[in-house]
């Protein structure tokens, strides 16, 4: 589903290049769930952006659904993203001028995979049924996060990429949203890559990798930070 082969990435800074990823190998099978942990600044978001084709590696290869991202044009990468990925970031990126129902179905409509029955089920299971005509600003933070998850899962993406999907929520709401997210991902059959600082988020996933000094190690989930 997703493969990194010897991926290197550095950022240009006034002090010279800052190497962030130094030879990353990673493989995520269809339907598999993976937590990516590591200290602040270790390169987790960088890796997620490369996985989504929002940025490209300096060397090495990132393959998504069997396609090498560096070999595609930007429009072709955008198509592949639309057809393959669901994205959930800490900032929810909801469209303020669209109501809850239209926000939820936006990605699915863009991907040509709008399924009204599945959208209704998502609204129901995410506790948003009855709120379809509200606008994002009329929702609580937890409700907005659940809507962002619903929007990402509405097209049944082959891979869901999530950056601290419960980072802005209190612990109780975070647990609730995580449980829902995992149940929905299982039902959709999506693979899942979650960037998180939280061992509570990583614990229920199939595997956990830790990013450190630009490389990945398999991490024991218990006690990993
Ligand atoms: N556009 C950029 N230009 C220069 N340096 C950058 C850029 N983006 C990120 N960095 C640096 O690259 C390193 C990795 O950043 P990244 O955001 O990937 O880390 P992270 O593990 O996601 O951190 P956090 O857990 O704090 O979100 C950091 O040292 C950061 O300052």
From TrEMBL:
Residues covered by the ABC transporter domain: 2-224
Protein's UniProt name: ABC transporter ATP-binding protein
InterPro entries: AAA+_ATPase, ABC_transporter-like_ATP-bd, ABC_transporter-like_CS, ABC_transpr_LolD-like, MacB-like_ATP-bd, P-loop_NTPase
Gene3D superfamilies linked: P-loop containing nucleotide triphosphate hydrolases
Keyword Cell membrane: no
Taxonomic lineage of the native organism: Bacteria, Pseudomonadati, Pseudomonadota, Gammaproteobacteria, Oceanospirillales
Keyword terms: ATP-binding, Nucleotide-binding, Transport
UniProt cross-references to SMART domains, sorted A to Z: AAA
SUPFAM superfamilies linked: P-loop containing nucleoside triphosphate hydrolases (SSF52540)
Transport found in the keyword field: yes
């Amino acid at each position: 589903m997703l493969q990194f082969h010897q991926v290197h990435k550095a950022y240009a800074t006034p002090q010279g290049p800052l190497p962030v990823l130094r030879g990353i190998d990673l493989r995520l099978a269809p339907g598999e769930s993976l937590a990516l942990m590591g200290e602040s600044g270790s390169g987790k978001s960088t890796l997620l952006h490369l996985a989504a084709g929002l940025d490209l590696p300096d060397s090495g290869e990132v393959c998504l659904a069997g396609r090498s991202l560096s070999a595609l044009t930007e429009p072709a990468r955008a198509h592949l993203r639309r057809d393959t990925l669901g994205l959930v970031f800490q900032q929810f990126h909801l469209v303020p001028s669209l109501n809850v129902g239209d926000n939820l179905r936006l990605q699915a409509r863009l991907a040509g995979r709008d399924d009204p029955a599945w959208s209704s089920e998502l609204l129901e299971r995410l506790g948003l049924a009855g709120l379809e005509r509200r606008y994002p600003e009329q929702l609580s933070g937890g409700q907005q996060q659940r809507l962002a998850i619903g929007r990402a899962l509405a097209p049944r993406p082959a891979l869901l990429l999530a950056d601290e999907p419960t980072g802005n929520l209190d612990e109780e709401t975070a647990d609730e949203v995580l449980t829902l997210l995992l149940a929905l991902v299982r039902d959709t059959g999506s693979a899942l890559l979650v960037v998180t600082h939280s061992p509570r988020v990583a614990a229920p996933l199939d595997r956990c990798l830790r990013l450190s000094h630009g490389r990945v190690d398999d991490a024991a989930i218990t006690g990993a930070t």
